[in-house]
Specification:
Strands 1-2 form a two-stranded antiparallel sheet. The radius of gyration is 22 Å and the shape is globular. Helix content is about 75%, strand content about 0%. It starts with 8 loop residues before the first helix and ends with a helix.
Length: about 500
């Protein structure tokens, strides 16, 4: 049981920075400097926290000195720490990219402080040890995203933002109702204590039916937020704002929903795997992966292609949770980290491509690699990594999830089908993103250098950082895997988490 103030810093740094930035509305230069310093500091703290957990175990913080379950507790296990670290890297690169792409008008309408507050919500969701506070951090994240998705006020943004706000209001209302039912049943919302009390209920055979109903309600809530199967709102909403905002949303927001599914269905609701995991989550994951990639193949708009690929990746990651083995969970965590990095990279490069060509329709582009070889080949490498081609970052995670699915298929034959759907989807993912490369960068050059609508000045450095991280995840798997396996150990053994929190009945 370790009470360590370092756990609070990934929340405190962006929160304090966001508050300060509000008072610098017209000082754009200072907003940029403080934003970069904030995310650099957050990255350093997250690296230190991850290393600390590897050496000393799970770190906790009892806010106000109140021990759980009576007080608010923050819990940094390896799974949460890896996601906070990845979040800080993505935030750093997207903030840097925004300097040259978001535009002065949007910068004056609180883009940078809202970005900081959004990261507070994302990181808080990963670190909280309480289900109600998970709801609170969700709302912090969502309120910030409501501002960001509508910033600029174009007609398309306003139309799509209404859909985005509506679906999140509905899911948040359902979240509150589910939390209320769960508290009425168990008398607690501390995740570690919930795990204990629900395990006791299943051991005694008391109230298990209503617990299963509540678990499915929460599954619906988190599936809506992650874009799992009920994803119809996502492609339009994520393709409406500027590409740097779409990059933040695609890389981070859906991943919070995925994290919530992993946390609750490994720590709290893991007792009826035949129903919740093998059947419901398994089918949802397979269908989401397939339908998402069909949407990506069907469209010729860069924004829509990349947005539908978010959906496809959500399905694949959740398949690892549905299989519910150490191998599959490890692969899902690895692929989740990879996907956060590579989605941010592809959206940012897609934004640069659209800025140069003056259109997002791939068939109206062509031959841009002649004048822009570096972003062209970066996009090619990112596309190949996204599809899981070895030895790039998507391969190892995909391999472990498929391996786990095949192993589980020996006892539950459906997982052979799910693994086959995932492999087929990978081919279509590759086709969909290569369509952008072949039409946008390859082929006949349609614009001379003088006719281009924009420039890549200031845009390629943050993309290069993301590409280097992706290379490290692919070629440096031996260094990353021990951390991923430790994260999977905690998810597969709830007692590790419970002991670290130190619940006293």
């Amino acid at each position: 049981m370790m009470n360590n103030n370092i756990v609070l810093l990934p929340l405190l740094i962006p929160f304090v920075t966001g508050v300060i930035l509000i008072f610098f509305k017209n000082q754009i230069r200072w907003q940029k400097i403080l934003s970069i310093l904030s995310f650099l500091g957050m990255t350093g703290v997250s690296l230190y926290l991850t290393n600390l957990i590897a050496n000393e175990g799970i770190q906790t913080l009892y806010l106000g000195g109140w021990e759980p379950p009576y007080g608010i507790v923050l819990v940094a296990d390896m799974f949460a720490a890896l996601l906070v670290l990845t979040t800080s890297i993505v935030a750093l690169c997207c903030s840097w990219f925004a300097f040259s792409s978001i535009g002065k008008e949007r910068e004056k309408f609180y883009f940078y402080p809202m970005f900081q507050f959004l990261i507070v919500g994302v990181s808080g969701s990963f670190l909280t040890g309480d289900l109600f506070n998970l709801f609170v951090f969700f709302e912090v994240m969502l309120i910030s995203s409501y501002v960001m998705i509508g910033i600029g006020g174009t007609k398309r943004q306003l139309r799509e933002s209404l859909k985005y706000v509506l679906i999140n209001i509905v899911s948040s209302a359902l979240f509150v109702a589910s939390v209320a039912y769960l508290y009425a049943i168990t008398g607690t919302l501390n995740m570690a204590q919930l795990s204990q009390r629900i395990a006791e209920a299943y051991a005694l055979g008391e109230g298990t039916a209503i617990i299963t109903v509540v678990s499915i309600l929460l599954m619906i809530v988190f599936s809506l937020k992650a874009g799992l199967f009920l994803y119809y709102w996502l492609p339009g909403s994520y393709s409406a704002p500027p590409m740097v905002i779409a990059a933040v949303f695609g890389a981070l927001l859906t991943k919070v929903g995925i994290y919530a599914l992993f946390r609750t269905f490994t720590l709290i609701f893991y007792h009826q795997q035949e129903v919740t995991h093998y059947q419901i989550l398994g089918w949802l994951a397979a269908l989401t992966s397939l339908l998402g990639v069909i949407g990506a193949v069907a469209h010729s708009d860069v924004r829509k292609i990349l947005s539908y690929n978010i959906v496809a990746a959500v399905g694949f990651i959740v398949l690892g949770l549905a299989v519910f083995s150490h191998v599959a969970i490890s692969g899902a965590i690895y692929y989740l980290i990879h996907d956060m990095i590579i989605k941010a990279l592809l959206f940012l490069l897609g934004g640069a491509l659209i800025g140069i060509a003056g259109t997002s329709h791939v068939k109206k582009m062509g031959g841009l690699i002649k004048h822009h070889p570096y972003p062209g080949w970066m996009f090619f490498i990112g596309a190949v990594a996204l599809a899981g081609i070895p030895p790039l970052s998507g391969f190892l995670g995909k391999l472990l999830v498929i391996q786990g699915s095949i192993e589980q298929g020996a006892t539950h034959g459906l997982f052979y089908l799910f693994a086959g759907i995932s492999l087929f989807s990978s081919l279509l993912i590759l086709y969909s993103v290569m369509k952008i490369f072949m039409h946008g960068f390859w082929g006949e050059t349609k614009l001379t250098k003088e006719e281009e609508y924009g420039t890549t000045k200031g845009l390629l450095a943050p993309c290069s950082i993301l590409l280097l991280v992706s290379f490290f995840l692919g070629l440096g798997g031996e260094y990353v895997l021990p951390y991923v396996f430790e994260a999977a150990d905690t998810l597969m053994n709830p007692s590790i988490y419970i002991d670290a929190v130190g619940i006293k009945e």
